[in-house]
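Let us practice reading a record.
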Amino acid sequence: MNAIALNSAAFNSARLIGPAIAGKIMADLGAKWCFLLNAMSFLAVLLGLLSMRMKDIPSKGELKDPKKEIIDGLKYIRVNPKLFYTIIALVIIPTFCMNFNVLIPIYTKDYLMLNEKAYGILLSSIGFGALIGAVIVAVKGVNKERFIYSCLGL
């Protein structure tokens, strides 16, 4: 659990720093530069994927029936409570909760009447809160599983 929390802390550190930089760039240079820099950031990933050489390609004899594999996986999830509740949470949250990231630009511009820098700060504050939560989960000696499920409302 600590490793997951620390991984989340690293991810949320990027959510803290990235939007702040993007807000500054958007305010000073315009949105097109943010899109260009984002596209350029994917070049390293593409180069990494292109440099991969796959040698272990399964033969026809090793391939299994996909329907049976899916059914076996669903049966396993049903009998494993931790996986079952995790999958339920992954279904409930996106289905019934609005993705607030879509609303933040409108909220910033139309309701708060703020500029691009403030937009970056708002997005960074989400990353800051998530970073603090990840550090609390990593450091505190609480029942981490119960803490996570209570945050999800389960």
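A brief commentary: The two ends are 19 Å apart (CA to CA).
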